[in-house]
Amino acid sequence: MSSALEQARAWAAGDPDGETRAALEATIAAAEAGDQAARAEVADAFSGRLQFGTAGLRGRMGPGPNRMNRVVVQQASAGLADFLVDREPHPSVVIGWDGRLGSQAFARDAAEVFAGRGVRAILLPRLLPTPVAAFAVRHLGASAGVMVTASHNPPADNGYKVYLGGDDEGSQIVPPVDGEIAARIEQAAATPVADYPRGEAEVAGDGVWRAYVEATAAVGQADQGMQGATGPRVVYTPMHGVGLETVEAVLAEAGFPPVIPVPEQARPDGAFPTVDFPNPEEPGALDLAMALATAEQAELIVANDPDADRLAVAVPDDGATGWRMLTGNEVGLLLGWDAARSARGQGVLAASIVSSPGLGVIADAHGLEFVQTLTGFKWVSRVPGLTYGYEEALGYLVNPGTVRDKDGISALVRLLTLASELHERGSSLSEELLALAGEFGAFESGQVSVRVTDLARIPAIMAALRAQPPTELAGARVTAADDLALPEHGEIGDILRFTLDDGSRVMVRPSGTEPKVKVYIDATSADGPPAQRIRSARERVEALSEAMRPLLA
């Protein structure tokens, strides 16, 4: 513990942020007085460095190398700058930030460090959605992009997401580049941040945002000519994030009627006061939207997460709330079918390996290639010839020609275009799901997640399932138990896949961004009329979910 306290004192002496410095000094004093919680906090904050990987950096804010703070952000920026300077003669970087606490300060620190190390630094003009930053990398021809965001993580978190331009076309970083940048960060961290050279960043004009708005609005004008059409009445929530301004501008540009924002969640607020977790997937996150939609007699709810790279959708239902949130796979298959019918036999549909196998069936029926990728949208977005890609965690890419990352705003526009087309025909998204089940069979999915406070539980759960995989689940025999980390299964990652004799599939993996173990369950049915198919597949998903819970204890 004395070593951690020594590191903490040294950190406090050089911390440029008065707020985190004061907090750390108070924690050090409490630890020295014997406070066990303070001692544990110091030990954890100085137990190592926050790992830089394919998601860049993401973690809890606070002082210390194992937290997100101004020192860690400046070190990361110095390392990324050195990587870019070695890579090309005149590198440039676009920097965006969202509405989370600390995001703007992190973005400005990053820009000054980039500029001081010979990288042209271009700050976006104000807090904006992540898809705008991803778009800006390609639009401005930048060497790289940085987005300061923790997406849908808890309020105490923040992050630093990295894109590469050039041949990478504005996609997120992948191995081995992440390791090369991480090594440069380690080298840069050997020098106190107070000694880093600083420079002045440029501030982009509003033209970048306007170009994104125009390109994204065009997604909603394709083929159907829906401009000016009368669509369903829609309630929208940006979940206390940065989506509203851009969504309203894009929909106006595309000719859609205005959405009805949830007033309590309409403006950016990094404290996320109305939700326990600012993630549309979490129970209760859409309660305010559902209440407003009922009061306004709306026919559809759409939601973005706080940085607007994900999309959630809810439709009218006979349940207690009057609404049902569609799963990521249901939305993914709707948008996939929409993309497939427009592709005219040319292009590729892609989904991550834990997403529904139903997209492959749709692709085959339309004469399109289907590609399954590793988990993470960084892989989906890099598929050659991509027409459309998605991952079950509410991530969709409908316009790979302009953005190479999941984009909750363009997906929203495309979904409203589809919903408006159906509305004009007297139909709805729910009825279209029935039609898809009738044409392709029902593909239902579900998830079981175990959130942990002790991170050691995650590898323990995975190890127990590897050592003793189930032989039967919910009355179905497990015909194959595959460890996808092994060479014979492509070394895809820390994923266990159980295939059942009724055609169901169960996959288990640690979350890449949260302290969770996640179980993905897929079931299918082609027997009987569409509603019966869906009901049968859902019953299998529920049964398998219950069967898996004891195995995660």
Automatic annotation (TrEMBL):
Record's signal peptide: none
Database matches in Gene3D superfamilies: Alpha-D-Glucose-1,6-Bisphosphate, subunit A, domain 3, Alpha-D-phosphohexomutase, C-terminal domain
Taxonomic superkingdom: Bacteria
InterPro entries: A-D-PHexomutase_a/b/a-I, A-D-PHexomutase_a/b/a-I/II/III, A-D-PHexomutase_a/b/a-II, A-D-PHexomutase_a/b/a-III, A-D-PHexomutase_C, A-D-PHexomutase_C_sf, A-D-PHexomutase_CS
Molecular function per GO: magnesium ion binding; phosphopentomutase activity
Record's keyword terms, sorted: Isomerase, Magnesium, Metal-binding, Phosphoprotein
Record domain Alpha-D-phosphohexomutase C-terminal: where: 450-527
Any single GO BP term: purine ribonucleoside salvage
Cofactors named for this entry: Mg(2+)
Residue intervals of the Alpha-D-phosphohexomutase alpha/beta/alpha domain: 50-188, 228-314, 328-433
Matching Pfam families: PGM_PMM_I, PGM_PMM_II, PGM_PMM_III, PGM_PMM_IV
Family under the similarity heading: Belongs to the phosphohexose mutase family.
Protein name: Phosphomannomutase
